[in-house]
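Problem: given the chain below (950 residues), write out its structure.
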Amino acid sequence: MLHKKTTSCWWSMAAVACLLFVTAFHIRGVQSAAVMSVDLGSEWMKVGIVSPGVPMEIALNRESKRKTPVTLSFRNGVRSFGDDAVTDGIKDPASAYSYLLDLLGKQIDNPIVELYRKRFPYYDIIPDAERNTVVFKKSDTEQFSVEELIAQILVKAKEFAQDATNQPITECVITVPGYFGQAEREALLTAAQLANLKVLQLINDYTAVALNYGVFHPSGINETTQYYIFYDMGASHTSSALVSYQLVKDKHTKETNPVVQVLGVGFDRTLGGLEVQLRLRDYLAVEFNAMKKTKTDVTKSPRALAKLFKEAGRLKNVLSANNDHYAQIENLIEDQDFKLQVTREKLEEICSDLWPRVIKPLEQALSSSGLTLDVVSQVILFGGGTRVPKVQETLKQYIKQELGKSLNADEAAAIGAVYKAADLATGFKVKKFVVKDAVLYPIQVTFERDPGEGAEVKQVKRVLFGLMNAYPQKKVITFNKHTDDFDFFVHYGDLNHLSAEEQAYLGGLKISRVELQKIKELLEKTKDESVEAKGIKAFFTLDDSGIFRCTGVEYVYEKQKVETEEDDEGTLAKLGSTISKLFSKDKEEEKKEENKEGSSGSANEGEEANKEESTKETEKNETMKAAEAEASKKNETIKIVTIKEPVAHTLTLQFTAPLSGEAYEKAAEKLDAINKAENLRNRLESSFNALESHIIDMQQKLEEEEYASCATEEEKSKILAECSAMSDWLYEDIENPTPEMYENKLKSLKKLTDVFMARHWEHDERPEAMKALTRMIEGAEGFLNSAKNLTKETNPEKDVFTQVEIDTLSKVISDTNEWKQTESQAQKKLKRHENVRLTIKDITAKMSTLDREVKYLVTKINLWKPKVKPTPKKDKKKDKKEGDEEQKSGDEEASSGDDEAEKPNEQSEEQKEQQVETPEAEEKSSQETAQDTSENTTPTDDDHTPRSDL
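Solution.
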């Protein structure tokens, strides 16, 4: 990159070089995995996406809409989805399936299933032979479980995400209603598995919204806890979640991160926009029957009922913004039209029993959190049902403050979930935001304990995860009194905070049974005086998806272990060290005694010294034995070791089991066959449309002079005849057509049409290409004129280029100019339908040659450095003589010879020495700089010639 000190000539040269040749190119991106979120509602589905370099966004469907109806239909062997499926549902209601989410994990006798049958009486619902779950029977040969239908919806969600990102997607985060239990969550995971999706996490819808709000409103989060309520009314349910936001310092990492924690939740799983729509549908049916336009009861006609349902949905939305509106349906039944004015007041009247239920979830959230409304900063709305004016009015009367409407009611959950997906995926890094959800259904363990001595067996309950406990979380339970095989049960705990109706919707309360085996043998095997039993420990986890697991069972005991030093060398070394010290001490004492003997020189003292030496030898041997004994004692250390033995056990799920085994394999094969058939049908339609479009396009183009002039009469006749023949064949009643048939026809037709289309392209693109070549030649000539002044002959001090290089560039420019003029004139003599002489390929080749020559010279001038002029070295002897004379002169001027008079002379001598050494240093530095520049092609400030020199 050029620096600020670069001169104008260098700028002009760089600009010329940039204008030399510009080509289009494609960058093949690094393959990175995109991830998605699916906000899977009962009525609508929103798909969030995130991919490398692309921010979080909502994926558009095939109609370029941001949300898609969760409806799937099968008619005449064709599967449709979204709006197309809704249209099919009007024609044949029993073939289109919607509002499926609440049927996940439900057995046929669940009140939710009965309510579904009442709402949509035209479905034939039968029980699954093995699991007793919901199966939609379309015919004797077509039956679909809820998991299969949801899986196909997720396949479509994946297609939308892949189309939006142009990348394969295998990982996702899916939102679920917070009231989903273990059966529903497991069933949804199975559906995702059928769709070949890896679920990174199931996230509660209100938790996803709370995460979204926290991520995009970070300024309000600090060390002080703040409380918000997120109120959601969707199509099928209503929920309210009280959450807290706070900055919390992590004990381990010492980092401070924002934390959102769910503290209280309330919900009503049958109150939502669907119930309002159904009330309005039934009202319209009653009003039509009252008109007595036909003797047939409109509620007995599935098609008429489906039309009324669709119109009720439209009317509900309009009345949310208007006081009245007309319901209009053409040919409702038996060619009878229906038109009725409905007011908002009437809508509120027919739903009068629903409005008191609106505040119940909010009250439950406050009650379960133990907080009051006065500490809550704001109640924030999301979900389409909250747009109903009566809902907002009811809430405002209760909370006595304005409602928060800062969130996108439709997309908040999808964006929050895709943020979580980016956090969990390996290819992304987002700001850490800790999420702690809350347990809605307490989970406990029940087992029997025999006190012995003929006492009655007791049933013991232990709470694992209490109401509103934060999760993800792990727990351990220890069984101390069992000496033989036993079992324990995991089930939902105290549900008194729920209504009896809600408990019935939940289904069975049992979760799993764990049978422990071979306990007696395990205890006998580990029975020993040195063993202390710590009990049988069962490990449980509630993961971030709200899925409960028993992760293992172990028998734990402590055992005394006598540890001997494994490293004998270490013990011997310690012993050797002790002995060495003893010997060294003796030697020191001997030296002292020798010194004493030398000073006294007495024979008697020598005898006493021998006695003392004998005594010390005895003491030394005793000390060595004591050291050995102590070392041996230290080698044997008794340690308490904890040992864990796995316990054989069998786990049996006691809630509605998800698809598995042979049933799962059959479902996977069925969906695979449906997907293949749809892909084949799409390919067939695409190839048919491509051939049809090409035939029409060629026929039209050959009628235009611009294109027709590029083909000879013979070519035109042949192409038009072929197009006509293919068009006739295309609209014949072909038996069992295949995509290959249309694709081969298109390929053969393009062989004919590509000839004149290529000529047209050449004639169309040539003017711009020639303009680009002309600009390049002009730029190269300007560069050449400047470069001529930078040779040894013209400018010895700035000899950047050799004359050979200048001549070479000059020849390339002249050759290119001559070629351009010659070929242009020759091409002008040719007609448009004749073979092209001056092609775009030839032009780009000439441009490439010219560009290469200029770039070579530009690179050279960027690397060129001026030569450093050598500085003449001074004669050291002469300098020394002059210095001595100056010093002598200074000494004569000094009167007292003090130190201060001598300092200037010393400083002057140092300066002289520096002046002598400086040229050598500068020359060395210059050489080093030149060497560095030759290695690094990036120009520096010193590399450039001043502006005035050019």
